[in-house]
Amino acid sequence: MPTPTSARRARRLIPLVAALVGSAVAAYWVRNLHTYRVPLTEALVPAAAIFACAYSAAREILAALCAETHRCRVSGCNFRVRLTRPDAVESRRWQEAAAAHPDHERYDRA
Ligand SMILES: [Zn+2]
Questions:
Q1: Do 60 and 73 belong together in one domain?
Q2: Beta carbons within 8 Å of 52's beta carbon, 6+ residues apart
Q3: pLDDT for 10-39, tens place per residue?
Q4: Is the pTM of this model over 0.85?
Q5: No. of H helices and E strands in the chain?
Q6: Are both 39 and 60 inside the same structural domain?
Q7: Which of 38, 41, 71, 84 is the Cys-Cys partner for 33 at CB 3.0 to 4.6 Å?
């Protein structure tokens, strides 16, 4: 489990890493379009759209990986809380809430 300081550092790098992933994916597709002799000026619009999609996806995935998750410990209960930037007090409060929520049932993802 990452320490709070390392998790904070990792969260600061999320936009940069997501931008690198988005740029790499967009560059890959521009290169693919170039093999079909698509001019660079006409490849910029789809490249921008591909960059935006890849950036958003990478940012969401990385944020989910860096989030702090508290789960209910009752067997068969899928209740969980995901916090993106909690302080110690908030994290502890949600940890207690996840352990003592009123009904232990299966929570499907919406
Ligand atoms: Zn539960």
A1: no
A2: 22
A3: 778 899 999 999 999 999 999 999 999 999
A4: no
A5: 3, 2
A6: yes
A7: 38
Contacts of residue 2, Cβ cutoff 8 Å, sequence gap at least 6: 10, 66
E strands, the chain, where? 68-71, 80-83
Is the CB of residue 54 less than 8 Å from the CB of residue 26?
yes
Taking the centre of ligand 1 as the mean of its atom positions, its distance from the CA of residue 71, in whole angstroms, is: 8
Task: Tell me, yes or no, whether 22 and 61 share the same domain.
Answer: yes
User: What's the gap in Å between 107 CA and the centre of ligand 1?
Assistant: 9
Q: Answer left, alpha or beta for residue 76, where phi above 0 means left and psi between -120 and 50 means alpha.
A: left
Q: Is residue 79 part of a domain?
A: yes
Q: Is there a single domain that holds both residue 9 and residue 62? A: yes
**Centre of ligand 1 from the C-alpha of residue 74, in Å:** 5
The tally of domains found in the chain comes to: 2
Domain that holds residue 91: 68-99
What residues flank ion ligand 1 with Cβ within 5 A?
72, 74, 77, 79, 104
Are residue 49 and residue 8 in the same domain, yes or no?
Answer: yes
